[in-house]
Design goal:
Elements: E1 5-7, H1 14-17, E2 24-29, H2 45-64, E3 69-75, E4 79-80, E5 88-89, H3 91-94, H4 105-115, E6 119-125, E7 128-131, H5 132-138, H6 143-146, E8 151-154, E9 157-160, H7 165-181, E10 186-190, H8 204-210, H9 216-238, E11 243-246, H10 265-268, H11 273-278, E12 284-285, H12 297-305, E13 311-312, E14 315-316, H13 330-342, E15 347-350, H14 353-357, H15 363-371, E16 393-400, E17 403-409, E18 418-425, E19 438-443, E20 447-451, E21 461-468, E22 477-478, E23 490-491, E24 495-496, E25 502-507, E26 512-516, H16 519-526, E27 531-537, E28 543-550
Parallel strand pairs: 1-28, 2-3, 2-15, 3-6, 4-5, 6-10, 10-11, 11-12, 12-13, 14-15
Antiparallel strand pairs: 7-9, 8-9, 16-17, 17-20, 18-19, 18-21, 21-22, 23-24, 25-26, 25-27, 27-28
């Protein structure tokens, strides 16, 4: 006998029904100064647990809002959030620079993200080292002290010198350390550029030594490109499935549509980011498009036209919604999301997490109610020479009380491992291309228990797919199939009966509480909330079990 499970669904907008299954939904989670996390300090077992729980609550909220990517600040300003051979622990973890927090925050964050189907991208702030205070707190552990030839002081702060080949080596070693030791999904390069007023950067000595009489501006661009290329190459050599991305200035250069008014990536801070896409040394760009109106739309189109089959995920400046920032209206961000979807960009990223989870101007409600009403998965890296994994095998579905227990046999492993996605639908076969059918976007286990409750959608039919670390997905394995001798019933928000049939609704114990030929009308009026068993009374008087429902 097949197992049927129907749930009551909240009405969705037509826009929600058309949501893409593949879309990057990212947030920048800042650890510098504990701006997004942590606000609790890890100075005792109680403090460690409070710090962990604070992060868990944030990740739970992101999962509930159907995000799938966290850009997690891992290198801050010459310091890090994990035990490193190169730099010391960040002040924000304990309140004291260099103090061990008593656990590995990076490992913890990765594990908790993966439990919730969230990709973890280690966000590295590359060129800045810190202001005078920050560098002073770092003391002898600071790169300014350990490798002073790599560093320049400029406008009151310290920076790595992009023109010194040692800077390329230093940053690539940090990236390699993270990738080799941790199961990250990405390395995300921030501030991979010269500082503001970069034309005044004090690198004349470096230029004389390494410039080879090249044009100064082009030499600076090449310096940044060389760092990007080296990190990309080193990461891919270790783990080719780890995505390498960066967050360039939101306006690449002047366009034929609109002028960048002197502030752009290419001319001002020497980021040749479109070249990085063309040369295939970035998997994705998250351009910081914290602009309104014509300062946003023409430049979004420019990125689209020059993406070279890699991902462009515009960074949206939701912090400007806050009254203490620029007090933007929520409509500005809504228009930008509509536009990025309409022109075919690869998702959205939001700066930063506090303003998202704080629901500034209702942004979180807007996403959960409309744009992100259904889950979405990170697209596969289609430029990678990879094949989809084989489907799982040996399906099993069993009803255990009010739960549905599913198991399957693992797919053959691939480099980096395999995980699984679970789908459910009221129709057979389950359409795994529809976002609304995605129940679980990631599990490393070969079993899943669906616990029925009114806030969680399920279905009559279930399927599972295997996914490799490049994002390629197998053909679905049906976990259950309809029996041929049962009447065909279409289930939506409430059961729809075959002609001439009556629906019998019983309590979980089997006590009948309702017979109806009009379930859409009678069920909401005549039964309360709970778990119910359904049966079909045929015109000939025979009764067929028809599943269960939560209402």
């Amino acid at each position: 006998m097949r197992i049927l499970l129907t749930l009551v669904f909240i009405s969705s907008f037509l826009f929600a029904q058309a949501q893409p299954k593949e879309e990057i939904r990212a947030t920048w989670l800042t650890t510098l100064g504990g701006m997004d996390w942590p606000t609790r300090k890890a100075n005792s077992p109680k403090g460690i647990e409070a710090q962990k729980q604070e992060l868990i609550q944030q990740l739970d909220a992101l999962q509930a809002a159907h995000f799938n990517t966290v850009l997690f600040q891992t290198r801050l300003r010459g310091d890090v959030i994990y035990p490193s051979a190169y730099e010391t622990f960040a002040e924000s973890l304990t309140g004291h620079t260099g103090k061990n927090p008593g656990y590995d925050p990076l490992q913890f964050a990765i594990e908790e993200c993966h439990k919730r189907g969230l990709e973890f991208h280690a966000w590295l702030v590359c060129i800045p080292i810190g202001n005078k205070r920050q560098v002073g707190l770092l003391g002898k552990n600071c790169v300014v002290k350990k490798q002073p030839k790599l560093c320049k002081q400029f406008n009151g702060s310290w920076y790595l010198d992009p023109g010194n080949p040692g800077t390329t080596e230093y940053l690539s070693q940090i990236a390699k350390e993270i990738v080799s030791r941790y199961d990250v999904d990405g390395i995300h390069l921030d501030y991979i550029r010269y500082p503001e007023q970069g034309e005044k950067f004090p690198d004349k000595d470096t230029y004389r030594k390494y410039g080879k009489k090249q044009d100064l501006k082009q030499w600076r661009r090449d310096n940044i490109t060389h760092i990007v290329q080296r990190i990309y190459t080193e990461v891919k050599r270790l783990k080719p499935w780890v995505k390498v991305s960066s967050s360039p200035i939101g306006k690449f250069n002047d366009t034929r549509r609109y002028s960048s008014f002197g502030w752009n990536a290419y001319e001002t801070v020497y980021q040749d980011a479109q070249k990085w896409l063309n040369e295939g040394i970035q998997d994705a760009l998250f351009p910081m498009m914290y602009f309104q109106g014509n300062h946003f739309y023409p430049f979004a189109l420019d990125w689209k036209e020059n993406k070279h089959d890699r991902w462009i995920v515009p960074g949206l400046g939701i912090y400007f919604l806050h009254p203490k920032e620029q007090n933007w209206q929520i409509d500005e961000i809504i228009r930008q999301i509509y536009f990025t979807r309409r022109i075919g960009l690869d998702g959205q990223a939001y700066f930063r997490n506090k303003f998202m989870l704080g629901n500034t101007k209702g942004i979180l409600d807007e996403l959960k109610g409309n744009f992100y009403a259904y889950p979405a998965v990170v697209p596969p890296m289609r430029w990678a020479s990879q094949t989809a994994p084989a489907s799982p095998t040996a399906p099993s579905v069993k009803l255990q009380g009010e739960n549905v227990q599913m198991t399957w046999k693992a797919s053959e492993s691939q480099p980096g491992g395999i995980y699984y996605r679970v789908y459910a639908s009221d129709t057979y076969p389950v359409d795994t291309e529809k976002a609304q059918n995605l129940i679980l976007s990631r599990t490393d286990s070969c079993q899943y228990t669906f616990t029925a409750n009114p806030s969680q959608k399920g279905g009559i039919y279930w399927a599972v797919t295997a996914v490799n670390r490049f994002g390629f997905e197998s053909a679905p394995l049906a976990l259950n199939v309809p029996a041929q001798d049962e009447p065909s019933i279409l289930y939506g928000r409430l059961p729809v009966l075959p002609k001439g049939y009556t629906l019998i609704v019983s309590e979980a114990t089997g006590i009948e509480i309702l017979r109806t030929t009009q379930p859409e009308k009678d069920i909401p009026q005549k039964i309360g909330k709970g778990f119910f068993r359904l049966s079909l009374l045929a015109p000939d008087g025979s009764i067929t079990p028809a599943g269960v429902t939560v209402y």
